[in-house]
Amino acid sequence: MDQATDLRALVRQVATAHAPVAVRPRRIVVFGGKGGVGTTTIAVNLAVALAQQAQYSLLCDAAGDDVALQCRIEPRHTLADVLGGNRSLDQILHSGPAGVQILPGTRELVRWHETSEHAWNRLMSQLPSLSPRPEVVVIDAGSRPDPLARQLWQAADRVLLVTTVETAAIMDAYALIKLLTDPTRLASITLVVNRSPKESMADEAQQRLAQACRRFLSLSLRSFGYMPEDGAVLQCAARGEPFVLAKPKCPASLHLRQVARALGNCVTANPPGSRAA
Q1: CA distance 30 to 114
Q2: Fewest C-beta atoms under 10 Å: which of 46, 122, 162, 225?
Q3: Is the CB of residue 90 less than 8 Å from the CB of residue 98?
Q4: What is the pLDDT of residues 159-205, one digit of tens each?
């Protein structure tokens, strides 16, 4: 077994005598304010980093087929088969890097599947029967402001919104928050500024967006850090390797693990049903 698997086993062995009643997996939904900001790369590496931190992770691609490409898997069946009731969840899952379970997506999802709340509820109801049972589900939701995005946004325990320092990306991120946020069911939203040349530029982007949300939407927006511009990210993506595994000491890996730790602690501290920001 690899080190992450050994660590998970040890944690569970120590906790067995005091294990709480099982609850549904926490859901972290990764959105991009616009296409091309690195949503899939963040989602893949976040799921791997959480697995390395002794959490059983399931990565769901609800945006297309890029997760399969970045993890070097060639699925015969995809998310559309589960949503359509043609396959069960355990028949579709692939074993991915660091033991992450992967539910691959497709760019040809049938539209009614995307908008069917019953189909998504049926998928989620199968999670407790999986072995191992995932403790956290990371969903790559892409950047489409459609009915599927609204469903995933409202079902999330934590939304991780990805943007860059460009003004257009920041404006698109704000527009997405305004469009998808339901005042009666506020999801906790966390921002990560990706591919920032400098920490100061990431801070400025975060402050601009947080100020706009606070002033015009009465919404608190948190930040758990930023992702620096790092050539290792593109190199690893081209090889189909998560950079947190292939280049564990590169700047992007160090920052991504900080984000994962903060997210893991925050979602655990605010269990399903909580909306503390």
Answers
A1: 17
A2: 122
A3: no
A4: 999 999 999 999 999 999 998 887 766 668 999 999 999 999 999 99
